């Protein structure tokens, strides 16, 4: 009986001695981390850029809407114009242009319409992006203040 107890103690010591990692396992783990960490950092960078672009795009769309609305209300939209709007610490560059819109169905006549476009350019993490908003306006109705009935 005594012999059986001694044998089980010595096999327990051998098991504890074998617990741990070999050099090959440690190197494999380091190689795995060397591949995974740069990929994870790149994913975080792309996610950060996407979030920043989305937030600034929303602000740029509001700026474009405001520029377009103000120019239509003041009837100051014929020709090309440009400027800069500051929103907090951010600057948004805008251009306003108009061109003749000729998308009427065949055979239909109407007074000439102009397509007025406001384009707002903004930067996010060193890259430029832009938002465009367009609407139709009639030079005849905005100049006289009357609309179609």
Report on the structure:
This protein has one domain (20-104, 111-144): GSPII I/J protein-like (Pantoate--beta-alanine Ligase, Chain: A,domain 2), CATH 3.30.1300.30. The chain has 3 helices and 4 strands, in the order ααββββα. It has helices spanning 2-18, 23-73, 139-144, and strands at 81-87, 90-101, 113-124, 127-137. The longest helix is centred in the N-terminal third of the chain and has 51 residues, at 23-73. The chain has a 4-stranded antiparallel β-sheet with strand order 1-2-3-4. Residues 142-149 have low confidence and may be disordered. The protein has 149 residues and is of the alpha+beta class.
Name a few traits of the molecule.
149 residues, alpha+beta, Pantoate--beta-alanine Ligase, Chain: A,domain 2, elongated
Kindly identify the CATH topology: Pantoate--beta-alanine Ligase, Chain: A,domain 2
Catalogue the unreliable spans. Answer: 142-149
Structural class of the secondary structure composition? Answer: alpha+beta
Terminal Cα span? 111 Å
- How large is the radius of gyration? 34 Å
Summarize the helices and strands and which ones pair or pack.
Elements: H1 2-18, H2 23-73, E1 81-87, E2 90-101, E3 113-124, E4 127-137, H3 139-144
């Amino acid at each position: 009986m005594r012999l059986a107890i001694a044998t089980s103690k010595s096999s327990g010591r051998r098991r504890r001695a074998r617990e741990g990692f070999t050099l090959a396992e440690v190197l494999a783990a380091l190689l795995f981390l060397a591949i995974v960490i740069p990929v994870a950092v790149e994913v975080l960078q792309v996610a950060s850029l996407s979030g920043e672009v989305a937030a600034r795009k929303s602000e740029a769309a509001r700026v474009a809407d405001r520029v377009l609305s103000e120019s239509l209300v003041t009837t100051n939209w014929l020709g090309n114009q440009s400027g800069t709007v500051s929103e907090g610490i951010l600057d948004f560059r805008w251009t306003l242009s108009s061109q003749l819109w000729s998308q009427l169905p065949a055979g239909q006549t109407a007074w000439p319409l102009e397509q007025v476009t406001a384009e707002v350019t903004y930067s996010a993490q060193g890259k430029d992006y832009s938002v465009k908003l367009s609407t139709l306006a009639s030079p005849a109705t905005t100049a006289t203040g009357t609309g179609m009935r």
